[in-house]
Design brief:
This protein has 274 residues and is mainly beta. It has three helices and eleven strands; from the N terminus they run αβββββββααββββ. A hairpin with a 2-residue loop joins strand 3 and strand 4. The N and C termini lie far apart (39 Å).
């Protein structure tokens, strides 16, 4: 990881000028002309944490992508507190570049208290993390791309596996190989990587369709259910329950030791041009 020259998180209102920063403090290229959406999401979540109370940790993020963000342009991150209580703080955030607002989001932070609970589980994958092959190809960026950062991403199975509803699942082992501290840093890293794989599972059954593939994220949500350590291997299970009229819905679930720790969902514009 290339350190930021000031080694600081991006507070609300900071102009982010470089992609060579710690995760969640700068935009990085997704392709030749636009920033990777996961880096935008990570920035939004980190900025949203500025006005929260000590002891509150990320609970959820709901973001809308309004226009492609440019990794070369300045980015402003104004934050507005919508509600505050001892248990929850909810804030609204915008990502603004010189040509206008490129994304908007609401984020919620929660002070955890012990309670009864339950969590869904999943079937064990066919490959252990250290035996699995690196995940790349198609819309998944290679290990040399800036959007991969310090993430180790590997295929958890030899191919798609059937889910409980019969829809195919694509599953990955993922971990972050750099230092992190605290629930916010963990959630920022998980939010970043959650955006790497979701359009691929949406297009899985249509990869042989004629035409040039075009994909763009429309909105993205994440829920952080319980503490996790993304520096250890997490299983990321992705599926796509719906695709119609060029809009695909994809969902992702993160498991630690078989227990659900976070969930993501994304709608994307997915089309092919001749």
């Amino acid at each position: 990881m290339v350190p930021d020259v000031n080694n600081q998180a991006a507070p609300a209102g900071r102009l982010v000028r470089t992609s060579c920063t710690p995760i969640g403090t700068g935009l990085v290229p997704g392709n030749e002309v636009r920033a990777f959406g996961g880096s935008t999401l990570a920035l939004l979540l980190r900025a949203a944490a500025g006005p929260t109370d000590a002891g509150q940790r990320p609970h959820s993020l709901h973001a809308h992508f309004l226009a492609p963000a440019s990794p070369a342009d300045h980015l402003d991150l104004p934050v507005r507190v919508l509600s505050r209580s001892p248990s929850f703080t909810t804030v609204a955030i915008e990502a603004v570049q010189p040509r206008g607002t490129v994304a908007t989001a609401t984020a919620s932070f929660h002070r955890p208290r012990p309670s009864r609970g339950h969590a869904t589980t999943t079937t064990p994958p066919s490959s252990a993390p250290r035996e699995a092959r690196p995940a790349e190809g198609g819309p998944i960026p290679g290990e040399h791309r800036p959007s991969r950062r310090d993430f180790d991403l590997r295929f958890a199975d030899t191919g798609p596996v059937p889910g409980p509803d019969g829809r195919p699942l694509l599953r990955y082992w993922v971990r972050y190989r750099a230092d992190l501290s605290g629930p916010l840093e963990q959630a920022v890293a998980l939010t970043w990587v959650s955006d790497l794989c979701l359009t691929r599972v949406a297009d899985l059954e249509h990869e042989s369709s004629p035409g040039r593939r075009q994909a763009a994220s429309l909105d993205h949500a994440a829920w952080y259910h319980r503490p996790f350590d993304i520096r250890q291997w997490l299983l990321y299970e992705t599926s796509s329950p719906s695709y119609a009229d060029e809009v695909a819905l994809s969902t992702g679930r993160f498991f630690a030791d078989g227990e659900l720790v976070a969930t993501s969902a994304q709608q994307s514009l997915l089309r092919r041009t001749v």
